[in-house]
């Protein structure tokens, strides 16, 4: 690292709480406009969930903030630096686990020896612990592993890298049922107040009680960036057997045996916890302007 370069880690204590700031960004693939004047702020010490429909631009957004794609307009700052400059001091504080990835023809142990020196605070002991928890064989060749096994190796690597920013794109795709629970436990245990995780996912049930705040990307904009409680404190979810008057509810969904209804909370309201799938549907539906939005 050049001596005049700002070390991200050294400035973490004083950098304030904002890890990512995107201001008025625009991005298009060739002539296909994806983002126009998009704004986003991500704060330290949280496990963010990034949600959006297929093609909403989640992976593109993650690539923009990790310096793999460049915005056409606006400003991106990660720990106060422009990721487009791809400075080593910033890149060694970002670990990005893509949804799909080729891996070299080598054993997991050899991969570890090759790549871990890039991350100054890589914790070899914890890497071993995570791999053991995920039941990964480090002597197996990476190119001969299943998708789920590869994900477990890279996930263990990313968590052990101790980067200040960890980006996981669809991390539970390919994981078996017991591994999904292990995933939640391991990710939660690796979180510290100085780290920030961003998890892009469609598998919201895998992520219940893990991701919060939630970012929702829709129609080229961030339409929601807040804690789940910001909605569940104001609105309550109830099951009803009689068909509700849709004009008087914020959100209605036909379910087995009745309807699920989201309505404004009153002092006496008792209801069910707001799950992420419903939160997503409510935010997308209300963003169409028919009910003025949940926020
Ligand atoms: N390299 C590329 N060239 C042209 N268009 C692209 C390219 N990569 C992505 N796109 C388009 O940009 C849009 C957003 O893609 P992106 O992969 O960011 O969405 P996503 O929200 O991650 O989708 P999914 O949930 O399906 O994974 C899609 O319409 C996609 O077809």
Structure overview:
Keywords: ATP-binding, Nucleotide-binding. It comes from bioreactor metagenome. This is Vitamin B12 import ATP-binding protein BtuD. One of its GO terms (molecular function) is ATP hydrolysis activity. By secondary structure, the protein is of the alpha/beta class. It has a 6-stranded mixed beta sheet with strand order 5-6-7-3-8-9, sandwiched between helices. A 3-stranded antiparallel beta sheet has the order 2-1-4, with no helix packed on it. A 3-stranded antiparallel beta sheet has the order 10-12-11. Strand 6, helix 7 and strand 7 form a beta-alpha-beta unit. The chain binds adenosine-5'-triphosphate. The site of adenosine-5'-triphosphate (ATP) has 11 residues, from strand 2 and helix 2.
Instruction: Give the SSE string.
Output: HEEEHEHEHHHEHEHEEHEEEH
Across the major sheet, the strand order is 5-6-7-3-8-9
* Share of helical residues: 25-40%
Domains, number: 2
Tally of strands: 12
SS class: alpha/beta
CATH topology of the largest domain: Rossmann fold
CA-atom Rg in angstroms: 21 Å
What's the CATH architecture of the largest domain? Answer: 3-Layer(aba) Sandwich
Number of helical segments with 4 or more residues: 10
Strand content: 25-35%
Largest sheet, in brief, is: 6 strands, mixed
User: Tell me, what is the CATH class of the largest domain?
Assistant: Alpha Beta
Form type: globular
CATH homologous superfamily caption of the largest domain: P-loop containing nucleotide triphosphate hydrolases
Bound molecules: adenosine-5'-triphosphate
On the 0 to 100 scale, the average pLDDT is 90
Report low-confidence residues grouped into runs of 5 or more.
none
GO molecular function: ATP binding; ATP hydrolysis activity
InterPro entries: AAA+_ATPase, ABC_transporter-like_ATP-bd, P-loop_NTPase
Domain ABC transporter: 20-244
Keywords: ATP-binding, Nucleotide-binding
């Amino acid at each position: 690292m050049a001596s005049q370069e700002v070390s991200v880690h050294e400035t973490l204590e004083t950098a304030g709480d904002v890890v990512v700031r995107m201001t008025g960004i625009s991005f298009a693939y060739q002539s296909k406009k994806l983002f126009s004047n998009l704004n986003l702020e991500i704060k330290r010490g949280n496990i963010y969930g990034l949600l959006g429909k297929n093609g909403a631009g989640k992976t593109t957004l993650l690539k923009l903030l990790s310096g793999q794609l460049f915005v056409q307009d606006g400003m991106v700052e990660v720990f106060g630096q422009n990721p487009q400059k791809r400075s080593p001091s910033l890149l060694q504080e970002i670990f990005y686990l893509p949804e799909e990835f080729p891996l070299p023809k080598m054993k997991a142990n050899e991969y570890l020896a090759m790549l871990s020196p890039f991350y100054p605070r890589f914790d070899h002991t914890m890497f071993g612990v995570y791999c053991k928890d995920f039941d990964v064989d480090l002597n197996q060749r990476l190119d001969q592993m299943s998708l789920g096994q590869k994900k477990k190796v890279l996930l263990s690597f990313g968590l052990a890298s101790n980067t200040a920013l960890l980006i996981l794109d669809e991390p539970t795709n390919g994981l078996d049922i017991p591994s999904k629970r292990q995933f939640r436990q391991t990710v939660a245990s690796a979180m510290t107040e100085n780290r920030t995780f961003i998890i892009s996912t469609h598998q919201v049930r895998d992520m219940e009680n893990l991701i919060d705040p939630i970012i929702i990307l829709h129609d080229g904009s961030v339409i929601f960036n807040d804690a789940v409680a910001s909605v569940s404190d104001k609105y309550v979810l109830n099951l009803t057997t009689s068909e509700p008057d849709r004009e008087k509810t914020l959100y209605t969904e036909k379910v087995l045996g009745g309807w699920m209804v989201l309505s404004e909370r009153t002092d006496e309201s008792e209801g069910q916890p707001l799950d992420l799938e419903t939160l997503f549907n409510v935010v997308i539906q209300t963003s169409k302007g028919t009910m003025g939005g949940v926020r």
